[in-house]
Amino acid sequence: MGISIPGEQSNRLRRSCGDAQGLFPSSTARGRHSTAVGTSRDGAGAAMRFSSFSQVGELESNRSFTSLSGFYSRYFLVPKRGGRGIRPILDLRALNKFLRKYKFRMLTHAALLRLVRPNDWFSSVDLKDAYFHIPIYPPHRRYLRFAFRGVCYEYRVLPFGLSLSPRVFIRCTEAAVAPLRRRDIRLATYLDDWLLLAQSEQEARVHTCIVTEHLINLGFVINMEKSQLSPTQEICFLGLSLRSVPFTARLSEERVKAFKACLARFRRRRSVQFRLCLRLLGLMASAILVTRLSRLHMRKFQRWVASLRLDPVRHGARWITVTADCVTALRHWRAPSFLTQGVSMGTVSSRKVVTTDTSLSGWGGIFEGRAVFLSLKHFLPFLSGRHVLGSLHFLSLRATRVPGTLNAGADLLSRGAPMYGEWMLHPQVMEQIWARYSRARVDLFASRENAQCELFFSLRTLDAPLGVDALAHAWPHELLYAFPPLALIPPTLARVRGHNHRLILIAPHWPALHWLAEIHQMLCAQPWQLPVRRDLLSQGGETVFHPHPERLQLWAWPDLIDKGKAFSTVKVYLAAIAACHIGFGDKTAGQHPLVCRFMRGARRLLPVSRPLIPPWDLAVVLEGLKGPPFEPLLGASLKHLSLKTVLLLALASAKRVSDIHALSVSPACAQFAPGNTRMVLKPNPVFVPKVVGSCSPIELAAFAASPGEQRAHMLCPVRAVRSYMDRTQNIRRSDQLFVSWAEPRKGQPVTKQRLAHWVVEAIALAYTSRGLQPPAGVRAHSTRGMAASWALFRGVSVQDICSAASWSSPLTFVRFYMLDVSGPCVASAVLES
């Protein structure tokens, strides 16, 4: 770690760091100076305790110094809490005046209470001498010196008392926390105190072992006395007692005792020091979130303290007489159960809005308050157990300027710093997101200026199609998009987790934030880091741009996609577990009575279902493939040629995406007849299909290129594959048929997931080229059912269809893939006649 000093104060600090030789003019002077440094009157005892501490290796004596000049501070010892040893303190208040001040985030009680879920299991880890694991940049160690009995010492590690120490330690531990949160481990870290949360006791034990092993491998020392390594559902952390079964939080017993001891000194006509009043205010502030109406009850005591008109720094030692008003202000805090009753935990994922409007004169505050009270009283049966947001409309008049359409950027900057919730992603980046994860239908946190979907909820304005405040409304069960303010990310996660919504989330990849582990727990696909570009984020109609978009580290998280698995998938999971589980007595894991009951319930909750009508119109897609941007083929971009080729191949073969992904361009696997009249494509010999032994080669004949068949010739898969192989010959770095067209992976093989995205994107582009809105929820696997159903409708035998699609039985096709692609029904035929 290096010490950062502002430029204008650097010279002053150099003048303060005089030659240390002047501090020790003689041995006698050195002895007197050492007595002044230590606080213990027993010099021998202090020296003994100090020498035992210096053996740890955090200090370095002047025997290795090249110069004794430096910044020297006072050094003393204080007893640790609970009487378990002593703590050395380096008084760096003078040095802190010269250091640059940085803002940084630490865990708060509010964030901690939002992190806990019902029925959670807790464990905690305490790091011993945590700061001493961070080394100091050697040239800066001279600022951390002190003298004792004629010997100069300097800190080689991060000391307590340095104003930069908390920020430096947090920044360093972020690197240690990041891999843990990527493994779905929920962690709340406050300097050297770490809290682990899990949904089951077994999961808590596993995560605790992972975290402790990870910390030990990094060189940290765990304080076993202060750590709680055995999972429990009630734990004390940061002065709070967290209980997940009743799902409540209250002050810890130690904090309650300290609170009551401080309150006991405030008796009428007794005298207390002014700093004790400030301490009591601090204790009240720390209890605001876990005591009911504490802000209201704290206000009276605040007014009494403010009426004293004393300065906290200059008048801290002044004695104050406790008056009757002070005793009255503390009456609620002395109630037996006030400090111990606790409050409910969790984040506010939804709320009800109660709107009132009544004002006869003036501000109407009394009437407004009474209207709210009567409204809540009337609707109490419907609002019980819910979070309520009251909206009050006062009768008032004020002048305001309506900004014009030409000065949106100037008006935005005149209001101060741009707000996080009003940033809009660049349209090209949004198109990349839609191509990866499908196009969302609803934007949850937007405005008319930055909405990415036609349907959206507004953060503030009233002109949103779906209303104001997404948390106050029910969300549609469509694919959702959200770029929320940082404070709204936890309630968004809780809402999605509780209602199984599908969502694409835009959020920073900051390992220090606790909700990152929750995002990883709900991931269903690989997240994507947004490309860093100068115009990535804008406001005010693209007139104001974010100065440092790279600092946000924005990612698109396809987490939060509904994880409801099909019953067949659940059976596969059970078979995999039973294969490696030792079983229960003479029964396997799958034969256990509870497991059997669970599977019967899963069959009822997740019945096998299949669509009866096509999810998209094949005729529209084929017409779209015959025109721009896919045709003319020689003038089409490599991207559009790739999309068209993979879609035509999927439709013509009815193969799985994995089978198409395995196709190779090696001479033994890709063969063309003379004149490109016929084509045979085979997968890589090392490819193992989903159904072993069922992967047959793709044999396709070319469409005629006669003048009358020119339109049909545009849909020839042989023509498309031949053209694609010719275009990619010079950039190809693999024998795999389909390779990437985009930098920096140009020419490298694409993954199966990327190939599936190509199929979906090709269908969407075909719709767009025809001036139509692409259907939502299209999947690449739908091409198998579409191709097989149309082949059956055109007279192809079921046996030939099953052979081409690698189905072992016609029953698979009939149960899961066959669609109704027949002509018009009886009703439409009659009405259209």
Give keywords.
single chain, 833 residues, alpha+beta, Alpha-Beta Plaits, 5 domains, six-stranded mixed sheet, 29 strands, 36% helix, elongated, ribonuclease H, DNA binding
Describe the structure.
The chain has 833 residues and is an alpha+beta fold. It has five domains: 7-101 and 121-232, Alpha-Beta Plaits; 248-344; 417-557, 3-Layer(aba) Sandwich (Rossmann fold), CATH 3.40.50; 567-605, no CATH class; 618-784, hpI Integrase, Chain A, CATH 1.10.443. It is 36% helix and 15% strand. The chain is built from 29 helices and 29 strands. A six-stranded mixed beta sheet has the order 20-19-21-22-26-23, with no helix packed on it. The model is unreliable at 18-56, 361-366, 393-408 and 825-833 (pLDDT under 50).
Q: How is this structure best summarized?
A:
The chain is an alpha+beta fold. The chain has 29 helices and 29 strands. The strands form nine sheets. Strands 20-19-21-22-26-23 form a six-stranded mixed β-sheet, with no helix packed on it. A four-stranded antiparallel β-sheet has the order 7-8-4-9.
Set down the secondary structure blueprint:
Elements: H1 7-16, H2 27-37, H3 43-54, E1 59-61, E2 74-79, E3 86-91, H4 93-96, H5 109-115, E4 121-126, E5 145-148, E6 151-155, H6 165-182, E7 186-190, E8 193-198, H7 201-217, E9 228-232, E10 234-237, E11 240-243, E12 248-251, H8 253-264, E13 271-273, H9 274-286, H10 294-307, E14 319-321, H11 324-329, E15 343-344, E16 351-356, H12 365-378, H13 380-383, E17 387-392, H14 408-414, E18 424-425, H15 427-437, E19 442-446, E20 455-458, E21 479-482, H16 489-499, E22 502-508, H17 515-521, E23 528-529, E24 537-539, E25 544-545, E26 554-557, H18 567-580, H19 593-605, H20 618-625, H21 638-653, H22 657-661, E27 670-672, E28 678-681, E29 698-701, H23 710-713, H24 717-727, H25 752-769, H26 782-793, H27 798-805, H28 810-817, H29 826-832
Parallel strand pairs: 16-17, 19-20, 19-21, 21-22
Antiparallel strand pairs: 1-6, 2-3, 4-8, 4-9, 5-6, 7-8, 10-11, 11-12, 12-15, 13-14, 18-24, 22-26, 23-26, 24-25, 27-28, 28-29
Helix pairs in contact: 9-10, 20-25, 21-24, 21-25, 21-26, 26-27
Organism: Collichthys lucidus (Big head croaker)
InterPro entries: DNA/RNA_pol_sf, DNA_brk_join_enz, Hepadnavirus_pol/RT, Integrase-like_cat_sf, Integrase_recombinase_N, Rev_trsase/Diguanyl_cyclase, RT_dom
Protein name: ribonuclease H
